[in-house]
Amino acid sequence: MCDCKMDRRSLGKLLAGAAGASALPGAAKAAHVTALAITCIDYRLVDDAVQFFHAKHLTKDYDQVSLAGASLAAVSSKFPSSNAAFWDHVGIAKQLHHIKKLIVVDHRDCGAYKVAFGTAFKGEGAAETTQHKSVMQQVKAKLAKTHPDLTCEFYLMALDGKAERIV
Fold first, then answer.
1. CA 39, CA 72: separation in Å to the nearest integer?
2. CATH at residue 149
3. Is 24 within the bounds of a domain?
4. Number of domains into which the chain is organized
């Protein structure tokens, strides 16, 4: 256990050192990246998601957050802490990295959708696409109100890694 105490003199030295270091020529400047990518946590698609963003020419040009359900995390009443995390990360990415775009990648056969919708889960095929699209449109509408300066793209990825733009 540390019995460390910081008095005013020590705090002053620490702050002065930090201020001096920030004035050095090699001091880091705020990074700029194009997008914040939000994906689902599903282990089956981690590598495919990275390949998807590389194919979009975003290598080392995006921040990434993974939340169960991806777009669903932003709006589902079943996941209130995920709602907060989703929107907090959009704000943080804007503040720290000056993002211009939000890219959300949902996927088929998503367990979070099954949990959130229960017996109203649409299964697969066109009905599943429609259900994802409905959620994505809710997120897009909220984004337009809360961050009107950001553009957005929403994709639905199949379990083979192929993605189609939905919204």
1. 10
2. 3.40.1050.10
3. no
4. 1
DSSP structural state of residue 43? G
Query: What pairing do the DSSP bridges indicate for beta strands 163-165 and 101-107?
Result: unpaired
| Its pTM surpasses 0.85 | no
Residue range of the domain that includes 140: 32-165
- Cα 61–Cα 67–Cα 71 angle in degrees, nearest 5: 85
Of 29, 37, 92, 81, which is closest to residue 59 (Cα–Cα)?
Answer: 37
Q: Is 12 a residue whose pLDDT tops 60? A: no
Per-residue model confidence as pLDDT tens digits over 94-130: 999 999 999 999 999 999 999 999 999 998 999 999 9
Q: Is residue 21 part of a domain?
A: no
Label residue 86 by pLDDT band (50, 70, 90). very high
Query: Is there a domain that residue 41 lies in?
Result: yes
Integer Cα distance of 33 and 97 in angstroms: 6
Return mean pLDDT, the chain.
89
Q: Which residues contact 106 (CB under 8 A, 6 or more apart)?
A: 40, 69, 70, 71, 72, 132, 135, 136, 154, 155, 156, 157, 166
Q: How far apart are the first and last CA of the chain?
A: 53
